[in-house]
Structure prediction request, 377 residues.
Amino acid sequence: MRAESGKSLLVKASQESEAAVETRKIIHIDMDAFYASVEQRDNPELRGKPVAVGGNKERGVVAAASYEARKYGVHSAMPSVRAAKLCPQIIFVRPRFNVYREVSHQIRSIFFKYTDLVEPLSLDEAYIDVTHVKKGPPSATLIAKAIKEEIKNVTSLTASAGISYNKFLAKTASDMDKPDGLYVILPEEAKEFIEKLPIKKFHGIGTATAEKMIKAGIFRGSDLKARSLEDLTQRFGKTGKYYFNISRGIDLRAVTPDRERKSVSAENTFDHDLMSLTDVIDKLTPIQKEVYRRYEKTGGFGRTVTVKIKYGDFKQITKSHSSDEPITNYEAFSESINKMIDESILKPEGIRLLGVGISNFVRKQSDPVARQLTLEF
Ligand SMILES: [Mg+2]
Prediction:
């Protein structure tokens, strides 16, 4: 009897918390063609022209493409060679991360005027929970409008905003009306919106998965919703549950400020393939210094160091080294890398890319998880 009433109380509590979740108001802000727009802002000669920020024409990858370049089919993560083929007049510009970081800081200060519930996803993207705000109009849409206006005033750049009651829908919405967009999905509209949405447009479903889904006859939200949880987990593993939920408009993830980092990494593609160990060590040094600089900023403690090597024939290997103790100084980090770098990594094709990463983060040194590490036998 007592057990039963306890159980029904639990059910009631979880129903209540779900109701609270339904009334969340979340904005997803995404700057338009961010790096490229900053370059066009700062260099009038680039305005109205197809611009690719990233590696040079011979090697490297496009990090961001201006809208003019996108008309030719150029997009981020595309090899620069391919971009130049699609759009011969494209202008390649070297990225200036210090400037992008500065703009990123400016836009984040604008978000914090409204709430502290800001979760940055990258330099130019963030979720903002505006269910309760410090100031501003009594509507999430009006707040999004005000944020966009202030971004425009402060940075001379445009952003797109998506507004809805959960992260999945807010993020999907910000992509619907780019550039300079404002798109709202109201709770009562969500069902129909998702049912009609082409599978490629679902946030969280990448190109490869979308293709897999299309092959399986899942073309839009309604097709996804028609699949059972068993079917989706069988096909897509753990993520199947996420797909099952989002097809029903359910995404209970909260906006979490200062989300804990899981890894730090950096990589570089070279103008000429590296053929000798001296060259490799030479080129690796600035990358590992950069990674360590970023690692220090996170304030986290990682235990695994990874080295990524891509050869001239685009074949890629990764090596990793884990230590029992988290990395707390540059020497230990460097030593880990040295253990993985010797003549055996060289190949006649040469090395075109090197990357380094630190992962396997434990919380804080004073934290039980980290302490456990030193206590373990
Ligand atoms: Mg963006």
In short: Residues 263-375 form a domain with the Dna Ligase; domain 1 fold (CATH 3.30.1490.100). Confidence is low (pLDDT under 50) at residues 1-16, 364-377. The pocket of magnesium ion is lined by residues 30-31, 34, 124-125 (CB under 6 Å). The radius of gyration is 24 Å.
